[in-house]
Amino acid sequence: MSDTVTFEVSQDILDSARLTASELKLELALSLYSQGRLSIGKARELAGLSLWEFRQVIASRRIASHYELEDLQDDLATITDQNRS
What we know:
By secondary structure, this protein is an all-alpha fold. Helix content is 65%, strand content 0%. The chain has five helices and no strands.
């Protein structure tokens, strides 16, 4: 299990931004993904969404989808594992 880091955001800041804590996590995930700082898997994990849900949000925001060599390798590994079952 990985370590967890917790940080505090005052309710006043959330209220000023008109965001809930979940929405703030989504916004952070989208920002880091669009900057190429997080993979789609890690970004969707941070956002607390399924891969399908996160892809829908990316599309609705017109954020370019990143597909790196690592993503291809992960997809191929998944396909290989499913074919073995």
